[in-house]
Amino acid sequence: MARPKNHANRHLPQFVRYEANSKDYRFTLINGVRKSLGKNKDIAIQIANEYNRIMRPNTGNTVDSLIDESCDKGIPFKPFAAHVDRLMQIITSEEQPSKQLKETMKNDAERVKLFFSDIDTNNIGLEQVNDYLNTYHANVSANVYNRKLGFLEKLFAYAIDQSLMLDNPASRKMKKRKTKNKERTRLSLDAFQQVHAAAPLWLQTAMDLALQTAQARLEVSRIKYSIKKPKEGICGCVWFDKPQDGIYGKLFIHRQKVEEKEASYIAIPIGEAIKQIIDNSRNGMLCPYVVHRRPIRQNKQSELTDHRYQVDPNYISRTFSAVRDSLNLFDHLEMSQRPTFHEIRALSARLFNDMGVDPQGRMAHTDAKSTKIYVRDHLEWTEVPHAEIQSK
């Protein structure tokens, strides 16, 4: 007669023992080797039951035997695919996903229905999870792979909640280690020109200003047509009464990212190129900002703008990327590798450097050389020499 289990092991599957000293659950394999199942009781029970079901089919009642017995009594069992639509309705109702996410999950659900069309719910284990991922997502990036595994895990979690499953095998599947993002591809002048030609006027203005000033989207979005005098936190133009040696005024930029450093205050001479950009931007719309547009929808105004027609810097980036992708210029690259609006700043620096013009002052780098200081209202503005990029 077998020795009865002690209190700690009474409710554990066969061949599992709780080690009080190490607070560990130990499991005996069919070859006699004892393995740790960790310190989580629920997980240890799930793993032991699954192992015993596969490797010790004659040990006690198994899910398969219970299913067979039920089927013998004429009770039909549906494959997991038969439950997916109802589970998706519950997920959609509970989580209220966005339209885009909802469409993505719908496509994933169709794959699940196809793969599990003849697999019973209680027969789904880690092996089936691996087969599913290898069938549909074997060659995707780690980020995509982990998202698809996450969807499967979510679906099984809702199935458990609806008493359709006892275990979530997807939760035991290890996620792929995310690799470091590959370096973003630089924007060439040719690609810049192609995007520029397809862009709306306001985006062309933003792109041209970024190229001639070597500034990022935030500073570009904040440039005003005219300001009375340079001021902290303000970007805008101070115009001369008359042109002086081909210079019409100065564009003052307070670069926010390095606003605590002297070099964050930049004075850029307004030559013919910048003046032409500003003149071309005027379209009769009353707005103090050079980069402006009339919004199509009456949405809530962005916190990054203080005028209804001023363009949010995030919208500048999104629209640039949308135009870029519509031209199929970088379809061979992953999204994370495609050049963004910010790459115009790097392009500007390269082109200025090729002209023999030090770009560091324009970029608000603190080690800028060959610049002079313009002092006003106790603020020191780094005045850069006049230079223009021929982009056409």
What is the topology?
Blueprint: E1 16-19, E2 24-28, E3 34-36, H1 41-55, H2 63-72, H3 81-95, H4 99-115, H5 126-136, H6 142-161, H7 189-198, H8 201-213, H9 217-221, E4 223-224, E5 235-244, E6 247-254, E7 265-270, H10 272-281, H11 313-326, H12 343-354, E8 372-376, E9 379-383
Parallel strand pairs: 4-5, 7-9
Antiparallel strand pairs: 1-2, 2-3, 5-6, 6-7, 8-9
Give an overview in words:
This protein is of the alpha+beta class and 392 residues long. The chain folds into three domains: 7-72, Double Stranded RNA Binding Domain (2-Layer Sandwich); 81-172, DNA polymerase, domain 1, CATH 1.10.150; 189-383, Intergrase catalytic core (hpI Integrase, Chain A), CATH 1.10.443.10. 39% of the residues lie in helices and 12% in strands. The chain has a six-stranded mixed β-sheet with strand order 4-5-6-7-9-8. A hairpin with a 5-residue loop joins β2 and β3 (34-36). α3 (81-95) packs antiparallel against α4 (99-115), α8 packs antiparallel against α10 and α8 (201-213) packs across α12 (343-354). The chain is elongated, with a radius of gyration of 32 Å. Mean pLDDT is 84; it is low at 368-373.
